[in-house]
Amino acid sequence: MNRISRKIVLFVAALSLTGCIHQELSKQEKFLAAAPRSILIVPVVNKSVDVTAADYMLATITIPLAERGYYVFPINLVKRVLEDDGLSDSSMVHAAPTQKLASLFGADSVLYISIERWDAQYQVLSTKVTVGLHYQIRDGKTGDVIWENRETMVYQPNSGGGGNPLASLVVMAVQAAVTKAAPNYIPLARQANSQALTQYPGRGIPLGPYVTEQQQ
Length: 216
Known about the structure:
216 residues, alpha/beta, Rossmann fold, six-stranded mixed β-sheet, 21% strand, globular
């Protein structure tokens, strides 16, 4: 490759990197401009085959948001109020105007979560557990998207080596069967939520107004 070709390649690469950085900054600027102090977490849309997936997500999303310094409305209270307002189905909630949802609670912003994948794939001697999530925060006044992220977490237990190869194979098969029968999604959901929200600057969200000195 001659000098001219090399310079062209480097220039194109620099432009691509600059574009990616600009996109991330644009996302951050929207969030910072909206400056939400409170976040309303609405029921999760579950596109997976696991009927309990939404419950796992709601059980693990509140703490990382609160630790980032935002007021988070109680999950059970939100669900009850929405049901009283005729919004008992999560798909109906996601289709409703953001401004309407925010006004019911006086929220500055609304967090929508969609579960794209939530499954365990059995592979004889191992089971691969995959969780795919889509996050979106919209401004409570305008309904505009001010932050968005996607996370995919994969967990595949590793039994490690042992002195007896046959015994190791048996252990691996048992572990795979147990994981398939009762996959532990809670750590994956907790890890995905933490990774999606706390990687700032970057894909996460900045610290909110209620963050403590220990959290900074």
